[in-house]
Amino acid sequence: MFHIGKANEISRRAFMRRSSQLAVMGAASGYAMGLAGLSDAAAFDNTGGYKALVCVFLLGGNDHANTIIPFDATNYARYSSIRGGLPDDGGIAIAREALAGQVLNPIAAQTLTDDMQMALAPTMPRLKARFDQGVMAPLLNVGPLIVPLTRQQYDSNSSSFPRPAKLFSHNDQQSTWQSGSPEGSVSGWGGRIGDLAASSNTNSMFTAINATGNAVFLSGDQTQPYGISSSGAIEIAALGRNLYGSSAASQALRELLTNGTGHVFENDYAMANARSIQFSGFVNDALQNANLATDFGTGNSLAQQLEIVARLIASRNQLGVQRQVFLVATGGFDNHDGLIGTHEGLLSGLDFALDAFYRAMSEVGVADRVTAFTASDFGRTLASNGDGSDHGWGSHHFVLGDAVKGGQFYGRAPQISVDSDDQVGRGRLLPDTSVDQYSATLASWLGVSPSEIPIVSPNIGNFNSADLGFLSGSELAREG
Prior knowledge:
Elements: H1 6-27, H2 31-35, E1 51-58, E2 68-70, H3 73-82, E3 118-120, H4 125-133, E4 136-143, H5 151-156, H6 170-179, H7 189-197, E5 208-210, E6 226-229, E7 232-233, H8 247-258, H9 264-287, H10 301-314, H11 316-319, E8 323-330, H12 339-364, E9 370-376, E10 395-400, E11 433-434, H13 435-446, H14 453-456, H15 475-479
Parallel strand pairs: 1-8, 1-9, 4-11, 5-6, 5-8
Antiparallel strand pairs: 2-3, 4-10, 6-7, 9-10
């Protein structure tokens, strides 16, 4: 077990002391005072140059069973039967012949559950090529857990075996994935990484950058995300001129956008607006010389978000950053009906966007120092509801980048079943790997010290391993 001992208590005190220092700095005005990092921060490895994490959130709950699909004859037959057969028969299974070119053959010999062979969805040929290249890895059956759970323990509903609150609820499970707690949480694990990493940056303002809508993932105790649009820094034209010919009206709009009212969420919104308005010119100036040759296409919102992230990473020296955490997102994955057709299109868009981002990181020369990873509300039921699938729990996800020890699977493949002990009804997967283990592995690679991992991943002490092994050069791997 990964225990939290005396050393970690010392680390927590150091963290709280650092947080107090950051709070004092946050109250100061002016660019230099407000953004400078602290030299006496607790241990954080910022050696080896720039590093970044990019969370790609799939809103709505991705149907993992039609993303990574059993290909061997025995398990494919089980999958097809449970999913009601092919669409022509009224089911939601993907035809086996469409998977032949998408089979994921591990670089090193791996034995999956029931001698399973797995294939990537037919509309994801680019990620299949990245798997073969050894820079993409699937993480199987990961989801929120407080403690490891067996089916018997889950069914007991005992307080001795706590389960995450409000399972199968979109808003609550999005928040639980991003923060460890249901809706209403104010601190996400990306933001907690940002709290620890901010001292590595000259301009800590740009430690955590949100290229999508409102989300708790990048909110820390001190770190708050800097919002960015796909076209660059958020600018409000009416603030740069007299609104309706009146300077008073323009000033009133500024105050309306940037002054909080005492309500925590309104204050956060006001602070984000103020930061975006104040530093939009600085950010756009940095982006001026960061036009990339990589083609991100048009009409793909996720690709456009990842393009601005890529340009910001290309501008890292001008922005004064060594460590960053980003959030991008794409929606449409709540496919209770119309799964076939809709889902393939969503996966095609994800496949293109992730591959374009990887190519851009190679162009910039930091593909080994930027790791992208997927997350989602939850997985789906293996059982069909007729035309789609319902809310689940565990799911499969992807990590991508040159630091990824790819071309192999991580985690345990679930049985293709609706009544086995690794699911909790209708094929809802009981996670075998926790989000805390996922976040701990990513945080460690970015530079979070082993003693401070529990700040990022509070439940990590309940699990046998804090390092899932899919990244090269993590702090936890070196310690182990």
